[in-house]
Amino acid sequence: MSNKILVVGGAGYIGSHMVLTLRQNGYIPIVLDNLSTGHRDAVLDAELIVGDMNDTALLMSIMKQHEFKAIMHFASYIEVGESVRLPFKYYQNNVCATLNLLEVMLKNNVKHFIFSSTAAVYGEPKSSLITESHPLAPVNPYGRSKWMVEEMLKDFAKSDGLRYAVLRYFNAAGADQSARLAERHEPESHIIPTIFQVLLGQRHDMMVFGHDYPTADGTCIRDFIHVTDLCQAHLLALQVLLNKGDHIICNLGTGRGYSVLEVIQSVSKVLGKRIPFKFGPRRLGDVAILVADATRAQQLLQWAPQYSDLDTIVDHAFRAYISHHQRLTNTTSCAISTIAS
Fold first, then answer.
1. The pTM is what?
2. In this structure, which CATH number among 3.40.50.2300, 2.60.40.10, 3.10.20.880, 3.40.50.720 belongs to the domain 4-173+225-252?
């Protein structure tokens, strides 16, 4: 059987890092991405098919053309605040389009599916460390869309023999340490690259959303996991499934939370720069604290984060961000004007 893996959303931030990890471990990633938020160059030299999960005919053609060992799904919309404003967009893509993908893959006898889920399925934390047994009570459409897919996977496992891994991310951060790939969202909403934009004059100021949360410094606390460590967990989950292991549902995090102000302090320390910021109102759908208990991932996958201390995350992220920025500014004036805008 071939070593081909279909990576849906493989031109995005985490998906592109997964493509790199698969290539480094002897797999052949085929990327499907509609490029609505992904970047053509991010797949490096992997095969890219530009298309959408909603396109049944395209999916059928891809499945007929390639013999896939598994499908990895990174094609969800992920912005909590936007999901509150535009829930239809999130349910249509994250749920309906994923359902279409699952239907086509099962019709073509592809039985292994790895799904990037989220800590947002837990809603308001009821304990300081969240285990997989924590009640699922998402408080925003983004979290609910992920929860709905998780429930679908359970049903298809019973009815169609689907073997799946659900990996619940906490906060993905960092970048490939060789600086080949960087975190690139348009517009950027993740805290670490947002700080970089402020330092490079690409953004006027750093906004801290809320300072009255029930935390030590009043700002939200999150568990940051290096994207390379995330991808290693996906690789291990893939190997478990292919070796006929049981279904997997586990958290991916470090068990250590950092507040927004602590992240700003880390960037300031690593880069030796003062970070200007100001406080703004809370964002819709944000919870105060999200920190993982990742014991199950450590046990089931024999996984342990290698790069996820905050200073290493910041260092890798900044070197990759600067490398990407330099590549853009060294190409065309159009690219330069895009950065400046």
1. 0.91
2. 3.40.50.720
